[in-house]
TrEMBL record:
Name of the protein this chain belongs to: Protein kinase
Extent of Low complexity compositional bias: 290-310, 412-426
Transmembrane segments: 374-395
Domain of life: Bacteria
Binding site residues for ATP: 44
Biased composition (Pro residues): 345-356, 398-411
Positions of the Protein kinase domain: 15-261
Species this chain originates from: Frankia nepalensis
Gene Ontology molecular-function annotations: ATP binding; protein kinase activity
Coiled coil region boundaries: none
Amino acid sequence: MIEERERIAAALPGYELGARLGRGAFGLVLAGRHRGLGRDVAVKVLPVDQDGATERSWNEARLLASLDHPHIVRVYDAVAAEDLHLIVMELLAGGPLSRRRDLTGETACAVGLAVAAALSYAHGRGVLHRDIKPANILFDAAGLPKVADFGIAKIAEGSATTASTVIGTPVYMAPEQILGGRLSAATDLYALGVMLYELLTGNPPFDPALPAPALIHHHLHVLPPPPGGVPAQVAAVVMRTLAKDPADRHPSAHAFALDLARAATDTYGPGWTSRAGIALRLDDDVRAAANQPTTPAPASTIPATLPAPTDIREPPAPARQPSDVGAPAPPSTAAFTKLPTQRADPPPPNLTPAIPPTAREEADRPRTRPKRRLALVSAAALLAIAGTVLAFTLIPGDDPPPTSSPTPAPTSPASTSALPPLGSPLTGHTSSVYSVAFAPDGRTLASASGNPDNTVRLWDVSDRFAPRPLGSPIAADSARSVAFAPDGRTLAAGSFNSPVRLWDISDRSAPRPLGYLPTSHPIASRSVAFAPDGRIVASGTRDGTVWLWDVSDPSAPRLLGSPLTGHADQVNSVVFAPDGRTLASASYDGTVRLWDVSDPSAPRPLGSPLTGHTGAVESVAFAPDGRTLASASYDHTVRLWDVSDPSAPRPLGSPLTGHTDPVYSVVFAPDGRTLASGGADNIVRLWDVSDRSAPRPLASSRTGHTEEVYSVAFAPDGRTLASSGADHTVRLWQIG
């Protein structure tokens, strides 16, 4: 360090060097003082170029030098001497926002206005920040907040830009940023909304301690609750910034600032900015809005929850979930180049469970097909990145190649006459395989087989062309359904004859039994599903009830409330909506029911049962956006339901016909545009459901199964479909 200081001093002869202020992924920071001007400065010492770090920091220097705004940190000089790169910027002695505690509502809103002012200025000059968070908001000695660390900022081209290297902090990243899609001012506003939520409540909308895949899933699909204890008008402004679709957020940082200023003034009264203890430099109209109350909006106009998400409109990659493929990234930065019948008596064994939520934890693909394919990298590396910076790298280049004609759309399932198989069938089960499910990382597949096999098997499907068994078969009495927890560490299986059973599969090659979910009497749980947060398990039973368990500690699960009653016959399928607030169940009684499980200890029915099928309903699945439900029936059809308002569901379009026998399983693809179904006609069929009111069949083919298909499941990347059936096999199929 002594030698390094000497080199720095030699490169900056006009400055005196002081104490070390900090060290991070983007370099060492020293205090300094300009000898002639007597001006205190901070000297940022960039690391020797590694993974583009120096280039990013020089980019920061160039950007900051071009920006002149009171709420943006100023750069005074940049020096390069051999392999030493230095940036001299103003010293912000007040420290970062992340160190401040017990902020008042006024203070939090004032910070929001300051950051919005900085972003409005930067966006007006075509610069996106991409990493707004408390640690990057610093205060000078007078209490003026300034946005710092433009090291990962990007020059925007027009109104939006595609990230060639998408980096940010996972807790604050917008869906389109996670997916490597088109970025805009709305991307920074999402991060600002997350930060404000945290400042107002003490916690961000999604728990940073969640495993990385679960955290990413929440950003992509889960609607956060309104910030608790925050006045409704302020909460409504914050919640708008957290919309999944960028188009549903404020059109600009300036529009956000006006909205927040008015809401805060109506809430805290005129003069609130002076009580906030924050120095502000605001545009005249924003300052006026912060001092002049408006007529409060009627409570009915203030949204209680985040608007339901729609497809991300700009083109990310088709995959959402990360995969455990490739070498892990360094701990401080993680490379992430784009991770669910007519009645027979006794019931026939050709039943399939609900596709568990984890098999649907994928990103919405936009309505515009992606122009570039992204490579997969280690999800294991993601487990260490909560609160760190993620790096995503696009392949093959930064931008699509120039063309004088429209870019042709990638091949879709409709363009093929048959689903191409991947490798050989997975064999080993000695009886019908009733259920298949992918783990959240996409590298493991689980399959469940009934009597006389009575096992659950795990398969390593990292190489889709050469899947292989993992460990020994897991003993599971008459297994009928299987589901992974969102963190991938727990496996649940339902049974024809016994309660739900859990296993710890942290070591996939050596699963450890955790016992049965406790019940007051032996009960056969035919279907099982985890809630998106992994803390609740639902099961449907042969006696027509649905049960909920708290599995926060999977080694000590406990029953929640009383069983849900209403079905007149056995429950074949249960599935949680992506937001975890609604549960759907399907029954031999020919109906589908919806349940409000926002308070799992006191669930309640929602609306009337969904009727229309003329036979038993075997499977239900939610679309990734949570607005559509699909159901499969013994009447040979699949139906779609609009459940945007789960208390008033309604049918969408006509039933999907084509199967010539009972349909046992249905599941949406990660992009929400394709539906897969499998049935007793030995066929897996695909449906284009881009227009949910007018679905249409895509190419269908015999999958190779020689008997009934009981279960279908999409991999998290959406490019592989798994199916299982009465021929004792599991098959993998290439979709895209």
